[in-house]
Amino acid sequence: MGADDEVPMDDKAKRMRDLLSSFYSPDPSSAPPPTANASSRYATLDTINTTSFDPNQYMNLLVQKSNLEGLLQRHVEMAAEIKNLDTDLQMLVYENYNKFISATDTIKRMKTNIVGMEANMEQLLEKIMSVQSRSDGVNTSLFEKREHVEKLHRTRNLLRKVQFIFDLPTRLGKCIKAEAYADAVRFYTGAMPIFKAYGDSSFQDCKRASEDAVAIIIKNLQGKVFSDSESIQARAEAVMLLKQLDFPVDTLRAKLLENLEQFLLDLHLESTETTKGQVNPDEPPKQGNLPDSAPATAHGASTREFVEAVRAYRAIFPDSEKQLIKLVQDLVTKHFEAIQQHIKKPLSSADLVRMLLAWVIVARHVMVLARAAVLTVVNGSGIMWTDVLLMDEVLPEAALVDFALEAARITVKQFVASAFSCHLLKVSDALTNAEARKKDEVEEYSLQVALEASKRAVIQGSMDVLLGFRQLLDEDLGLLMKLRDLIIDWVQEGFQDFFRKLDNHFLLLSGKKCRATQGQVSEERIQGEKILAGLVLVMAQLSVFVEQNAIPRITEARFHLNEIAASFSGGGVRGYEYGPAFVPAEICRTFRAAGEKFLHLYINMRTQKISVLLRKRFTTPNWVKHKEPREVHMFVDLFLQELEVVATEVKQILPQGLQRKHHRTDSNGSTTSSRSNPLRDDKIGRSNTHRARSQLLETHLAKLFKQKMEIFTKVEHTQESVLTTVIKLCLKSLQEFVRLQTFNRSGFQQIQLDIQFLRTTLKETADDEAAVDFLLDEVIVAAAERCLDPIPLEQPILDKLIQAKLAKT
Amino acid sequence: MQGGSTGIGYGLKYQVKPRKTSTRPYKILQIRNPNSVSISYFQARCIADVKADTDHTSFITGTLSLKEENEVHLIRLSSGGTELVCEGLFSHPNEIWDLASCPFDQRIFSTVFSSGDSYGAAVWQMPELYGQLNSPQLERVASLDAHSSKIKSILWWPSGKHDKLISIDEQNLFLWSLDSSRKTAQVKSQESAGMLHYLSGGAWDPHDVNSVASTCESSIQFWDLRTMMKTNSIEHAHVRNIDFDSKKKYMLVTAEDEFGIHIWDLRMPKAPVLELPGHAH
Fold this sequence. Notes:
The structure holds 2 protein chains of 2 kinds.
Chain A: H1 2-24, H2 33-39, H3 55-65, H4 68-114, H5 117-178, H6 181-198, H7 204-226, H8 232-244, H9 249-278, H10 289-316, H11 321-344, H12 349-382, H13 387-440, H14 446-474, H15 478-518, H16 528-569, H17 573-581, H18 584-619, H19 634-653, H20 660-666, H21 669-674, H22 677-687, H23 690-711, H24 719-739, H25 745-765, H26 769-785, H27 795-808
Chain B: H1 2-22, H2 27-32, E1 44-49, E2 58-63, E3 70-77, E4 84-92, E5 95-101, E6 108-115, E7 118-125, E8 139-143, E9 151-156, E10 164-169, E11 172-179, E12 184-192, E13 201-204, E14 211-215, E15 219-224, E16 229-235, E17 239-244, E18 251-256, E19 261-265, E20 274-276
Antiparallel strand pairs in B: 1-2, 2-3, 3-4, 5-6, 6-7, 7-8, 9-10, 10-11, 11-12, 13-14, 14-15, 15-16, 17-18, 18-19, 19-20
Main location (chain A): Golgi
Region (Disordered) (chain A): 18-40, 274-297, 657-688
Keywords (chain A): Coiled coil, Golgi apparatus, Lipid transport, Protein transport, Transport
């Protein structure tokens, strides 16, 4: 029922409330707090301010919960609240009304204000129109003038340009003076289009002048490019400028390349000069160290310069690695050539070693350079290029290093070879020098001197070579490290070769001179035979020396070398490989054979000479019509003279043999006893029966053969042995010559006399008395056989003639 | 009886000789080494093989005896090869210093002889042997007497039937044309070796019939027979004897005066190709 009452009131109140709440809604929370505070004690009484407020429920709840007092109080509170709300509402209405009024007022005022505006606006329009018409008038009136001004301006610009062009030569000149080449180039390139367009007509002179200036600039720039004193950057800039000037940079590059090559040549010259400077071996030894080390450093320095130049070049022309590599290769080859040339010169081995070291330094420089060059190429192109191409780029470097190494190997090898050939030359020089010296002054002991000199040369030279190589090996150089083993092998081979060559050389010396001496061709060789024979003897003894002395020493030294090598290579494995490289036993054998051969050659030469003498003696006279012997024939003197020469030569060179007595007992004693018998037997035999005679002869012949075996015993390297062999051979020749002749009695007697004389004299010189005696007998037997009437001289006459001869000498 | 006994004597010696020589590599020693050939109680300086005798191995030798009668012996190796038999024995008027057999007729040979002052050279023909050994006379085909100095050797045309002969004396070289049927010999041409050279022997090149080598004191000279001019020489060779290799062209072997054998190549006359030392006289 309460609800029915409240329904009409409810509509009104609700509308009211909605209005209010819509008005206050921006601040809904601020309105309820007074009620909220009051009704907060009664939780359910809060809903009075919410939208879902139910007055009936609220009333019921209020009635149920609170007592009368509370209801009364609530009523009072409620009434006060309602009052407050009503006043608030009234105030709001008033305020709104005021606003409305003021708004109407403003609208009213606006209406009145707008009325005058129209006229003003028209006025404004009128004014603007007039301004515009005026400005149009001004515009039209100024138009002509403005055009003129613009034209003038253009002309002025043109004139300025022309001025610039006309000034260009002087300006360029100034720039040249100030060395502001960059500006100059900028000016010139700016002026280029004009020159291109009008250069042929109006600006001809100007163009020519500026071109001249530019030519100067180009020249200067080129100079700058080529000058080593400029910084690399400046040179690179210069090249850039030149490029801007349309200068053919390629030719420039080529030229620079040429320059580099030239530089290379200079380098060579320099190095050769430095080495030439040191070639004087006669310099005082005190200064020896200085010139030795000088070329190495000088060489290194110049190479460094070269490297620097190449680097600059690379900076200037970044695209020319190929050429550079080629150049560097060129450098390497040239270096090697230079080195080879140096090696060919007869330097001392120490110098050679120094040279080589210097060169190795150079090679290392080159390698570093090459690597750097290639690296730049790789860096420059590596990003863009595929890996394959990169590989291709890297390859040249590897090739270059290989190339350097290869060349180094060749050089070292050549060095070894040349060291040995140098050595050989020295030895042979020692030999021939001694010979030459002998020609000048007939010195007694010249042969001995020669022998000593050559001995020394052999030993000293070998030691020098070994020492040199040891030095070389001691130097810690990367390149050499690789080659160390090879070098050692080469040295071994070199020694082997050296001795073989020495042997050959000896042979050649003897063989060649043989031809030269006896010929009538060479005027120098008139006394050549004598010298040569001596030389052969020297060589014979030298061979023995090499066999017995030099080889062991070198072998010993070589072992030292090997030890060093072993300590480096750290393995004894290679030690076994040295065997075939240098075989001392083989060399010894060769030289023993050579020694014997030379000795034989010597004997042969001597004997031949004497044989010629003897042959002349026996072929010239007519023996069938020979006169009575009056004295010992002079050929005996000549014969003895020749023997004397042999004796002196032999004495100088060869060692003395064993005791003479020993040799005497050596020969067959039976020959001495039966020696005189054959002749007598023969003579008796002739008068005897045929058979007996034949038997005698047969025994004699048998003895002849038997004896022959003993006559020519093995030749030894002693004075006596050689001399005796010569005598024996000569006597045998004598016998042969006798057998070719037919004698009358006087001829036979002459020979008997000569032989008898020889018998006494040869006893003093010859060692093997028995054999000599026997041979002399043989001569007489042969003469008797070839004699028509073999009646010997009486012993007293013989003695008398011999005494006369002895007295004469 | 005497012949028989000497025959045995020869047999012994001969058996030794060829063997000894055949072991040596070159023919010249076998032929004319003056030392090694001395037979029995005769001394001989020369021996030559009979090239024309194709059926047997035969040699002829000549004795060198100053005081006795000299003989030429024809020796034949028995079919068994073990014994040497003296097939013929011919008396010769002088000491025989050199002897050479005709290459096309086994009965013809040449000798160089001298005795004392006199010297000469002749071509002989052996008479037919009718089983008798006792020195029949040799038939003189021709005597080569144009020489003015001591004759050294006679060379026959190397092979085949040809009428040419060369005789060498100390200074000259003679080329003869021999007519054996008419028994004459004529000098075809002659050349002097020069005053300074004393020729001692020579050899005819079997490969080049126009070339002859001759030995001097210290050189070997080569002659062209067509022009009789010296073509070549090997200097500084002390040569006792010389021969060509019958198989290989240009090869030459020489026996040295003192010792050793040298082998030469004519294309390289400067130095011997090979030296064989080891002989001492």
